[in-house]
Amino acid sequence: MTFPKNFLWGGATAANQFEGGYDKGGRGLSSLDMVTNGSINELRQITRSTISDKYYPNRKASDFYHHYKEDIALLAEMGIMIFRMSISWSRIFPKGIENTPNEEGLKFYDNVFDELKKYNIEPLVTISHFDIPLNLVEKYNGWASSEVIDLYLKYCEIIFKRYKNKVNYWITFNEINAGVTGVSSYQGLGIRNEGTISYSDVEDDPQIRLQALHYQFVAAAKAVVMGHEINPNFKIGCMIGSSICYPYTCHPKDIIHAQERNQLYNYYCADVQVRGEYPYYAKRIWDNENVSLHITKNDEEILKKGKADFLAISYYATMCVSATQTGESALANLNLDTLRNPYLEKTDWDWVIDPDGLRFTLNEMYARYQIPLMVVENGLSAYDVLDENMEIHDPYRVEYFKAHIRAMNEAIEDGVDLRAYTTWAPIDLVSAITGEMKKRYGFIYVDFDDYGNGTGKRYKKDSYYWYKKVIASNGESLD
Questions:
Q1: Around Cβ 451, how many Cβ atoms within 10 Å?
Q2: Confidence label for 40 from pLDDT (cuts 50, 70 and 90)
Q3: The whole model's pTM is what?
């Protein structure tokens, strides 16, 4: 294995799934505080008011708010070099519209960054990770309004200036391409309709959705320009959720369909943020959706000026698509026209496992953009069991990561400029899609169940010790 000497090994989390403390330190309610828990077979609900017989998992999550010193010490012992985390917007501006930020919230992140520095762990901060103050959802319908751009920039200016000597790496939006389809309009864009509705059934209006996504593009570009003015050494990247589409058959119509889906799912957003302009095929996407975007000359200029310094991706699975066939879905819980690859195994949550797809994806992205890449999410969800000896044996997770690390190494050998790898997630947290805690990803077990019951104690899994050896050997020791 030949990872670069300065390669950054780490782990990734998100405030809304990990931090908790939703009513502490002056924090306001966020969009995902209003989503109930559920299961694979039970739709989650979005509610405007708290329902007494429902549990809201993001409000407590893994309670990093009260455990951050312990958690960071555990990461440091494992050898983590870089820790991807997000800042909760509503902890800084509780309603999103205040003139003055919440000092208690700012101080909390000061403490987190100072604790990371104590162990020489580099923070990688996502500014908005599927998280927006609830007031902005109710007042503006989230990113459907261009007024949110300036509110986001005010938030960016505060954290850029406050942490300019503590944070070097930033990501403007998590998986911004979630907004390119109607799957995650509430999650990614804060768009919703009235009443109590299912999490995956927000009424989709392509005109509103794609315009809202454009506003995020403009906000991200302006944030890049602003950040570089505040600290020229900042590295400010964009991020997409990568799910490369294979043609299900060699039928030419399947080949074309896969190309179209890759343009939509994987390249549309990255093209705008890395190249600084909408791609040639965007007009056909807009025509197919029957939308007409309001894009000003100033918008076009700022997109050119505010191009991303690096491209970050999440990678969990590939998909098959077909214009000629139907069959089992490749990605459970996501309403995409995908088919399961018959050559691949599945996780406990029915997502295919495709390490070769990671190598393929990295090559495709680097060939297209020629800027540094980071894999900032990659991991295996599984039913982990805490046994009578208070141990967790998870050889399946070790095997998963072995295969994906080998695939990354192959991509580096291919010539890809890959800078960092932050696994999802080093410590168990709440699932973004299902709201479950039993859907575990971590090297560290958190003793909470799907309803927040438990001690909250942390336990090292077998994979913890394995990843520690991987980091210490810079990827050479995978056994």
A1: 11
A2: very low
A3: 0.95
